[in-house]
Design brief:
It is a single chain. With 629 residues, this protein is an alpha+beta fold. It contains 19 helices and 26 strands. β23 and β24 form a beta hairpin.
Length: 629
């Protein structure tokens, strides 16, 4: 069928979808702050607040402190250039100069969450002062954003109107849920209403532009805000508007086309977009389907998730360095962006909450514990903007080859020579994992994602607190200390890799979950999962190894070099070269053994052809490494 005819039919059907009732969601999310990290996750959050996450404003002051882009430095026609901390974007049309809003707001989102979730009082005061400043920038009509009156809602080309709002409004939502501050809540509602008045539903086209680029396409995730407001208020106008935005995006000429409905339904279409867009755009599609229940959108969602699944490396990293240029993942040749790790985790968490599909929880744990932790420096406060599973060098270019102008394959607390986007998202990812660990269903509480945490919430009139004590994923034992006023049903997900389990309390099995009735008062549940080393086939005759949720790698000794020192003491850009270049090959049938110190395997040294015993460790403990053999 001709694409234009198909598009017309699809968009006509989308108009009728808004008449449907939103689909019921499998789980009810808890309020942000009802789940707090403990153990190693809390420790990591606090370390990040002492490191890159708490000091990014000092590391890149020109982008954060000196550019009050939502206030006195709002963009006008008179501004022709701005330092946006990205290569090649210093002198541009004003319509692209939204960039610092992303840097600031994504950083603030992670900073606010980390400060409150980890109990850091000093940084909580800093967060409160920032919110007060932002609320003071709101205009009388409710406008919050980066444009002065001569530009707002009037741009005909690339613009960051919805993107600057989406990233900022997520901060306001976080702060409201954490503090219950009524002033923040009212400011947020007024600001969203201002958008809906100026881009009226079904009577405007927010994504129509002459020269669309990244900001316009990022703006589709304004649906993040709408989806959460619908959950918090029950007001259907928010998801109706989200459906309208997806419909408008699908019909216009935009720079990022992977998620457009006609392209998803086109069997010959191959994903090729900027990875972070393609993975974050899964969320608007999810929200549009649940807003309408339309069969066409269900088919589109199934197709889109299937395509994404072909782009995942052994660690759970979604490829795109920065573009999706191949249709399958390669552990050495296809890298992934830290932004993409975060955005796909967030998208999977939204889909898990709405659908209840437990395999999504396995995917989230896989990416958070392996790709995300494995792209952090294991001992210093910095992250890799781009990383490959098989990482043989980190000198700026991919495995010391490829594009000589590439700078992203290194460790940095800012990555200002490329773009200050991945470091802010590295500060967000743990809190997004934590907020999705527990959910409510019709019967009680469900532990979907596992790890050390404390949850305190209400099930109707029943106040419940659960302390989940564990070293997971580095050990697979748990102690759940439960205090409840009344009995309730507890469900705990059993990961797909579990072979056997033991529990101190009687339980029943329901699909991928174990469930038990918990009495009022205090109950202690001791739970242990047993497993063995798993060998996984990947790509062309490669094998990788896992134990529990962790993917293991062979670490290589490396020579460290300081590429840049920051004015803030203790922060550096670091590059790494191998002390000795070598790789190993594993053949099925060779010896494999698990020990607490790692996985021991026998493998062939490809340089000497000798069989050697080598020790693999969790990816989070590595810099240079080999994952597939």
């Amino acid at each position: 069928m001709n694409r234009n005819i198909l598009l017309t039919l699809l968009l006509l059907s989308l108009k009728t979808w808004a008449q449907n009732q939103p689909l019921p969601e499998k789980y009810q999310p808890l309020l942000l702050g009802e789940i707090k990290p403990t153990g190693w996750i809390k420790t990591q959050m606090r370390q990040d607040l002492q490191g890159f996450s708490g000091n990014l404003d000092r590391l890149v002051p020109d982008l954060i402190l000196k550019d009050d882009i939502y206030g006195k430095n709002r963009l006008t026609k008179a501004i022709k250039s701005k330092d946006v901390g990205a290569l090649g974007l210093g002198e541009n049309d004003v319509q692209i100069l939204w960039w610092n809003s992303e840097t600031q707001s994504n950083w603030r989102d992670g900073f606010v969450r980390q400060a409150f979730l980890s109990g850091d009082l000093a940084n909580q005061r800093k967060a409160k002062a920032y919110i007060s400043h932002i609320l003071a920038t709101q205009d009388a009509d409710g406008y919050l954003g980066v444009y002065a009156p001569d530009l707002r809602y009037k741009l005909t080309g690339e613009n960051g109107e919805l993107w600057a709002k989406a990233s900022l409004f997520r901060v306001l939502l976080s702060y409201y849920e954490l503090t219950k501050d009524a002033k923040t809540w009212q400011a947020l509602l007024s600001a969203v209403d201002n958008v809906m008045v100026n881009y009226p539903i079904n009577r405007s086209s927010p994504f129509k532009a002459e020269k669309p680029f990244a900001g316009l396409s990022h703006g589709l995730v304004f649906t993040d805000v709408l989806d959460r407001l619908h959950q918090l208020t029950g007001n259907r106008k928010y998801v109706d508007y989200a459906l309208f935005l997806y419909r408008d995006y699908s019909k216009n000429t935009v720079s990022e086309t992977d998620v457009q409905l006609p392209n998803i339904l086109n069997d010959s279409y191959l994903m090729h977009g900027h990875g972070v867009h393609s993975y974050e755009h899964l969320r608007p599609l999810i929200v549009a389907y649940w807003a309408s229940g339309a069969d066409t959108l269900k088919e589109a969602l199934d197709r889109y998730t299937h395509r994404i699944n072909q782009l995942i490396t052994p660690s759970g990293g979604p490829i795109g360095d920065e573009w999706i240029t191949r249709q399958t993942a390669d552990a050495t040749q296809t890298g992934y962006e830290y932004c993409s790790i975060h955005e796909l985790l967030h998208s999977h968490a939204v889909l898990l909450q709405k659908s209840g599909e437990p395999s999504l929880a396995d995917a989230i744990e896989r990416s958070f514990f392996n790709a995300a932790q494995g792209a952090r420096h294991p001992t210093k406060s910095s992250i890799a903007y781009l990383k490959t599973d098989n990482s043989f060098a980190m000198t700026g270019t991919k495995n010391d080859g490829g594009d000589p102008k590439q700078t992203r394959y290194k460790y940095s607390p800012a990555h200002q020579d490329a773009a200050v986007c991945c470091v802010p998202n590295a500060g967000r990812i743990a809190s997004y994992y934590v907020q999705s660990m527990w959910v409510k269903d019709a019967d009680g509480l469900v532990a979907n994602l596992l790890g050390p945490c404390q949850v305190s919430t209400r099930l109707g009139t029943n106040r419940v607190r659960i302390d989940e004590t564990t070293e997971y994923p580095y050990q697979n034992n748990f102690v759940f200390t439960i205090n409840a006023e009344k009995p309730f049903l507890l469900k705990i997900r059993k990961p797909a890799w579990v072979e056997q389990l033991t529990s101190s309390q009687a339980y029943e099995t329901e699909g991928a979950y174990i469930k038990m009735m918990v009495k009022g008062g205090q109950t202690v549940v001791k739970l242990a999962f047993q497993t063995s080393v798993k060998q996984h086939s990947f790509a062309q005759h490669e094998t990788f190894f896992s134990y529990g949720p962790l993917v293991y790698a062979l670490p290589f000794a490396a020579q460290e070099a300081v590429a840049k020192s920051f004015p803030v003491a203790g922060f550096f850009d670091l590059t790494y070269r191998p002390v000795q270049a070598q790789t190993f090959r594993f053949s099925p049938g060779q010896k494999v053994d698990y020990q607490p110190s790692g996985i021991l395997i026998e493998a062939i040294n490809t340089k000497t052809q000798a069989v050697e015993q080598i020790r693999l460790v969790p990816m989070a403990k590595t810099i240079l490494r080999q994952v597939t053999f």
